[in-house]
Specification:
single chain; 272 residues; mainly alpha; 0% strand
Length: 272
């Protein structure tokens, strides 16, 4: 007799989104103790970039972004790994030890995370270019005011921003099909692309909401608090608030991973 097809689970999206906010809040003490160090590191990197970018331009700004990007990537990976382990493991590390296992875990996570970002950016560009080529030959807006501005096609039946948004939406579906590799790496499982693709089967759009729409909504909620002429302190507080939202996003992905890959029900209490 042939092997039975693997079980296809339906991601309970409402429960995952709700748990992304309630779980960290109910156990905020444990979350704060576990994430304080990586949060401070990421906030420092973000503030350095945001504040410095006001005073530099041109090639100096490009150099600055390259200098800050690697520490930011490592800090983001450190924070995400910490949150994933806090949610998914029965006995997460109470104190993070900077040993070989930690360095290896965060390094692999950062490399795969960067690869997924490259995949998203490349797919967005490819899809948007494909849509624009439908209106071939394109004519472009002149950029005499700002030589660094990207020229935009003219005579499109829809706004250019809509095309880019559509491209990002479709790219998020592909990202969602492979994103489950990240929580697997965080708990020292093999970063298996095939397993992630199989586990996300028939849940691509639900996962796209978790990894795409949820972060977009949280970022825009933070942006609504920004006002013209804001002081440096106000701006810094918004940066801190925006960084804190990453915790909710990572918890949502952890719960989605639990629902789609692990046999037990998702946790109601934090392992710590």
């Amino acid at each position: 007799m042939g092997e039975s097809a693997p079980e296809v689970r339906k991601l309970p999206l409402r429960r995952v989104i709700w748990g992304a906010f309630t779980l960290p809040w109910e156990h905020r003490g444990a979350v704060f103790r576990a994430t304080a160090a990586p949060l401070l590191a990421l906030i420092a990197c973000t503030l350095l970039w945001e504040l410095s970018s006001y005073y530099v331009s041109g090639i100096n700004r490009v150099i600055l972004s390259l200098i800050v990007y690697l520490p930011s990537l490592i800090a983001t990976s450190w924070l995400a790994v910490t949150v994933h382990r806090l949610v998914l493991l029965e006995a997460p590390d109470a104190v993070m030890h900077f040993d070989t296992a930690f360095i290896r875990r965060v390094s692999i996570f950062a490399a795969v995370f960067f690869g997924i970002w490259v995949l998203f950016s490349g797919l967005t560009l490819l899809i948007a270019s494909g849509v624009l080529n439908i209106f071939n030959p394109p004519r472009y807006v002149e950029t005499s005011v700002d030589p660094g501005q990207i020229p935009r096609p003219m005579d499109l039946p829809v706004p250019f921003e809509w095309i880019v948004s559509l491209a990002r939406l479709l790219a998020y579906w592909f990202v969602a099909r492979v994103i489950l590799m990240l929580p697997a790496i965080a708990i020292d499982r093999k970063p298996d692309l095939g397993a992630a693709w199989q586990a996300s089967r028939r849940n691509g759009w639900r996962l796209a909401i978790v990894v795409g729409l949820l972060p977009w909504c949280l970022q825009h909620l933070v942006d609504l608090l920004y006002r013209d002429g804001a002081s440096t302190i106000e701006f810094a507080l918004l940066v801190v608030l925006g960084t804190l939202t990453i915790i909710f996003e990572v918890v949502a992905l952890s719960l989605a991973y639990w629902e789609l890959t692990l046999p037990e029900p998702p946790p109601t209490d934090p392992p710590a």
